[in-house]
Amino acid sequence: NPDYIDPFKPRCSLCEKPIEGFFILALEQKFHKDCFVCENCKKPLEEFVEVDGYAFCELCDPNSKDFVCAICDLPLAGKTYEKNLWGETYCVEHDGLFPKCESCGTMSCQIPDPGAQVLCKHCRENTEIDAEKAKEICQRVVADLAKVGLEIKDPPPVRLATQAQINELCIKTHKGYSSCTKFSGKRPVEILVRRGMVLEEIESSIAHELGHFYLYVRGFPQLKPMVEEGVCETFRAKFLEQQMEIDPKFGFGPQMRADAMERKKKIAENSNMIFGGGYRGLADAMKSERKTFAQALDIIYETKWFPR
Q: N or C end of the chain: which has fewer CB within 10 A?
């Protein structure tokens, strides 16, 4: 029984999972090969430089002359520096002086071209998503939702579309939003997400649309827009809560990924009364009535409204 054996096996210092076979011994700790990564850029390491007990690749070595500010290119060795969500480092003097990425909310570390969307380096480099990749993303989202008890079987296919196509096919409340579910009669037959979005935005948009599909296959009655979108935004939030990272600086195990926390914060702060208001209404109702999301869904099925 592997569950019995696992507690006696050595565990990786990063992911805390049991180590099978080959491992890396470094910094007086044991790591899976893919878990031994640079403290700054998070890329797997074959060779590394140890600085203050942390492992860095050659390019990210804080003591190297190549360790420079992402904005002004001045050396950061020996200086206090800041880091955005994706590990880009910059002088503390620049903090707050550059626009925030419109996708993940981190500092973009650059001035965008006039009229161009403000994106950080990570988000700008992760917009090339094709149909096959979108299918893989949907499968991953389904798997992550299943971890919190939101089982979804045979989800509709995902199609990358223009904003104009989404606006044409979506219901009124979704006009101008980056995704929608296409219906044939009352049956959802396709999920549309806007082409050109970054990977993390596509993931969370699919999670939202899978909420609509879940309500359909579970036979929920027709709900008021604020209730239905509140449920679907909670699907998005539940997915984001599963996006984990482990910071080797702390021994507290998995933690919610920083960019996922920013995206979840955006859900709660959305000023739209149907999407943001629906999410806040459901969250407040679950808190005041001490209900889990699963229990709240049962109540919504019976009453067509939030728990009260």
A: N
- Give residue for tokens 């101008």: 176
DSSP tag of 46:
S
Please give the structure tokens belonging to residue 253: 């195990």
Alpha carbon distance 285, 304 (integer Å): 13
The pTM of this model reads: 0.70
Residue 14 near residue 248, CB atoms below 8 Å: yes
Q: Nearest-CA neighbor of 248 among 27, 9, 85?
A: 27
Of the ranges 67-76, 126-135, 238-247, 253-262, which one carries the lowest mean pLDDT score? 253-262
Where do runs of H (alpha helix) occur along the chain?
2-5, 121-124, 131-146, 163-169, 199-217, 225-241, 258-269, 276-289, 293-303
Closest alpha carbon to 190 in 221, 219, 216? 216
Q: pLDDT for 270-300, tens place per residue?
A: 999 999 999 999 999 999 999 999 999 999 9
Alpha carbon 95 to its chain's center? 24
C-alpha 14/C-alpha 23 separation (Å) is 12
Tens digits of residue pLDDT in 20-48: 888 888 888 899 888 998 887 788 888 88
